[in-house]
Design goal:
Elements lengths: L5 E3 L5 E3 L2 E2 H8 L3 E5 H19 L4 E5 L6 H10 L2 E4 L2 H9 L7 E3 L6 H10 L3 E4 L2 H13 L4 E8 L21 E2 L4 H10 L4 E7 L9 H22 L5 E6 L14 H19 L5 E5 L2 H4 L3 E12 L5 E5 L8 H5 L5 E3 L9 E6 L8 E8 L7 E5 L20 E5 L2 E6 L4 H5 L4
Parallel strand pairs: 4-20, 5-6, 5-13, 6-7, 7-8, 8-9, 9-10, 9-11, 11-12, 12-13, 15-17
Antiparallel strand pairs: 1-2, 2-3, 4-14, 14-15, 14-19, 16-19, 17-18, 20-21
Bound molecules: ligand LLP.
Length: about 425
């Protein structure tokens, strides 16, 4: 199976984290999102342990909560001792609601409003990752009013191509994110930040892109960022405490995706960074990484019920399910690859090639095209694997479809951690 938390039991049903997925569908209904909590914790521990070993004390991962944000996930991250990356006041609110210690949080985004800044300051945000000049001066103004000195990082664009989908690359010079090093604007910006009395510039952040299996792009970005740190030291005499390298490594969605050895890649990155620092004669900053996908993706699975199998003679077959782009827009947006299985007949040969179609009133509402699957019949449960990242967090109520629940599986117990939305929830803000 694609990941070690998947198996088939003697009833021929797909199991996930040791649970019979078909029985869970009977208990909770579909669409249903499952979260293997042990896997989330294990994935976090890989980064926690390996980063500490490779980079030393003070270097740690921050969970990129844009990949999956609900109250309980922040509790898990807090228990494991990682930090968080948040990108909106809503994520901040959810983290605060969960009792997450916000001194270990980094507030991202290319347009933080005055209200966002005020709210984050009132909650005691650890770091703003400052994206532009307007934001810098607003943080300075509000911090001065409170007689407070706020820690920040500056978001830079190192100009590195991560070889991933165009819509999820972020580190190139022409980007809505960050300040370009190449154009000389970044070094000038540092001068402005250093002259703010109520801002403490702790370091720099970059993020080259998501779902990257190429650790070389992290090294390239790190090398550019470290040279920049040397330039700052030469020009302003300012040391840098933190270098935040952004998101984590890629994840296997389908069998053809490569395996990635994260501990090995972290060690390799650390060796490169140490060598670079020695060459540049600078102290090694504390390193932060912000994995999202590689923490939660393989800890998630979505189950649907098949409604129909339609074969258009001479064309192809469609398997229609009771969810779709409203709970998982990733195929519609990025043509993302997914593995789809008939969870009710997981021991049967994949004898049908089909397009898996959602229930939205839109032809582009597909979950995957051309998948081989054991021929389903109405009522069979259809599993889409590796849906823990950027599925629930990107879900919508398109076509007034209620969002599915999330059921956590942990130590043999299944527990609802996010309730299924009701029809009443759909109209609760309508006046
Ligand atoms: N840090 C920053 C500043 C980011 O922008 C991101 C992702 C991450 C960390 C986490 O990256 P990860 O470890 O998850 O690769 N919706 C898209 C992904 C967009 C990612 C945006 N930023 C998708 O479904 O593939």
């Amino acid at each position: 199976m694609l990941h070690t938390n998947l198996d088939v039991n003697n009833q021929g049903h797909l199991t996930f984290a040791g649970f019979d997925t078909v029985s869970l569908c009977e208990k909770y209904g579909t669409p249903l999102m499952l979260l293997d909590e042990e896997r989330v914790r294990a994935n976090l521990r890989i980064y926690l342990t390996e980063m500490k070993k490779a980079f030393g004390e003070g270097s740690f991962p921050c969970f990129a909560s844009k990949s999956l944000s609900f109250t309980d996930i922040y509790r898990i991250v807090k228990e494991e001792g990682a930090g968080i990356d948040i990108v909106s006041p809503g994520e901040l609110y959810t983290a605060a609601h969960a009792g997450f210690p916000l001194e270990k949080s980094f507030f991202h985004g290319n347009n933080k409003t005055d209200e966002d800044i005020a709210y984050a300051l009132s909650e005691g945000i650890g770091y703003f990752v400052v994206d532009n000049e307007e934001e810098l001066y607003e943080i300075e103004r509000q911090s001065a009013e409170k007689n407070h000195v706020q820690n920040i990082l500056i978001r830079l664009s190192p100009g590195v191509d991560p070889h991933t989908h165009e819509k999820i690359t972020t580190g190139q010079v022409d980007s809505k994110f960050g300040i370009a090093i190449e154009t000389g604007q970044a070094i000038e910006f540092v001068g402005k930040a250093l002259s703010c009395k109520h801002i403490k510039l702790m370091g720099y952040h970059c993020h080259v892109g998501s779902q990257s299996f190429d650790s070389k792009c992290f090294m390239d970005a790190a090398a550019i960022m470290l040279s920049f740190i040397r330039e700052v030291l030469d020009k302003y005499g300012a040391e840098t405490e933190i270098l935040n390298l952004g998101g984590g490594f890629g994840v296997r969605y389908v069998d053809s995706d490569p395996h990635i050895d994260i501990p090995f890649n972290i060690r390799l990155l650390a060796e490169n960074i140490k060598a670079c620092c020695a060459d540049l004669k600078i102290l090694m900053p504390k390193i932060i990484m912000e994995p999202g996908r590689s923490i939660v993706a393989d800890a998630g699975l979505t189950l649907y019920t098949c409604g129909s199998v339609k074969t258009i003679t001479g064309y192809k077959s469609y398997v229609s399910i009771d969810g779709g782009m409203a709970d998982n827009p990733r195929y519609a947006l990025y043509s993302s690859a997914y593995t789809v299985l008939n969870a009710s007949k997981a021991d049967k040969p994949a004898d049908l090639v089909a397009t898996i179609a959602g229930r939205c009133c839109e032809s582009g509402d597909l979950i995957q095209e051309g998948v081989s699957i054991a021929r389903p019949e109405r009522g069979d449960k259809i599993a889409v694997l590796v849906t823990g990242a950027y599925n629930y967090s990107m879900a919508s109520n398109y076509n007034r479809l209620p969002r599915p629940p999330i059921v956590s599986l942990y130590k043999g117990t299944d527990r609802v951690v996010v309730k299924r939305e009701s029809f009443a929830d759909l109209v609760k803000n309508d006046l």
